[in-house]
């Protein structure tokens, strides 16, 4: 999964016929539209002419290319204005996509919103793009392709964006008013600042190390790794280039620190603190959503997301493999193994509760929702743990998903709490990400049989999770009356 806390979702992309804007490093400079018409790509065009870059732009080697994801839709020439219904639809789709709404939900919701505003809509959502074909009359229509990178989870912004969608659908808000609120949502700062987020990574890693049966030494090392990974996550928000290398660097750093902890503290395991430290980056949530999209016949989106999750697994595995070699070289340890110190049973349930509370910060949810995130973590672990002991891991994951889904539905219908508030913590506890990582590490160690067997189990667990959540209809966005009740409570 991606790290939490995105901003600028509703106005940060552009149609495919436009090229990135070139900006000077000076913050006062105005953006050059940098527009390219698709018709300019002919055999007689030169490189600069094809790219829409004039001689002035080519002379400024210090310019930085503004990525497609960074460009606001408001700055794209001839793009529908945000105050118009069509412009509102575009920005609403982009915002929902950025905040992690799966394809089958986004397409259904956007179709309903467009019909309420008098448009016919065919929508196709992919992990990296959205295609919207809007028809105003039988003879007129427009098709837009918006480049959209997978965003970071932000439960509060998702909740507010969903509320705007239902308010516009039910006539409580005009598209102009909705567009204004969307702008406020996407430009709003995160609920929790970076200085709180970095320790939150450490606390989550420490709690998960205890859940993975680690001792006190493993918990300490996992907390150190989590804090270092949190620093990398915060840094990549300021240096975008670091984001592409984040999985490799995190795996490398986690492996080296795990070996250093074994060298100095004589931990009983390097694997437990390593996985606990990077588990927030493991794409288990992405894998489960991919399975759900495949199950709902969103085959292109599900396949693309599945391969995206696999790529992140490979990047993390590569970083760990390099880290293992460096760790063995810098911090050689004796072949004799050290036993893991046992901790009391109550510490396990305390760690689960702390992890659930900590997810409030990681996923940028309101503090009032922390009790539900703690409850979801406890339900997920209790049901899956005891069911897995008697029926196997896939069945345990399925029963855990059903239990979390049922609890979320009850809370959603009775109190108006968004289902995602309980779903995401349940995913982390039930998630097959750690299983997939174990499979990859086995393959890197040339244990092919164990690696393939573990990978197959990971797929079974992922399918079981997706099926359990789909059966309980947990993926449905809050209904209109629930959203209104939630808004009344906020006011």
Could you name the key traits of this structure?
disordered C terminus, single chain, 3 domains, 5% strand, 491 residues, mainly alpha, two-stranded antiparallel ribbon
If you had to describe this structure to a student in words, what would you say it looks like?
This protein is mainly alpha-helical. It has three domains: 9-15 and 69-187, no CATH class; 21-66, no CATH class; 194-488, no CATH class. The protein has 20 helices and five strands. It has helices at 47-51, 55-59, 85-98, 103-116, 155-169, 175-187, 194-211, 216-238, 240-244, 246-265, 271-278, 284-295, 299-330, 345-362, 370-391, 393-415, 419-430, 433-444, 448-471, 480-490; strands spanning 22-23, 64-65, 120-126, 129-135, 141-147. The strands form two sheets. Strands 3-4-5 form a three-stranded antiparallel sheet. A two-stranded antiparallel sheet has the order 1-2. A hairpin with a 2-residue loop joins strand 3 (120-126) and strand 4 (129-135). The longest helix has 32 residues, at 299-330. The protein is globular. It starts with 21 loop residues before the first strand and ends with a helix.
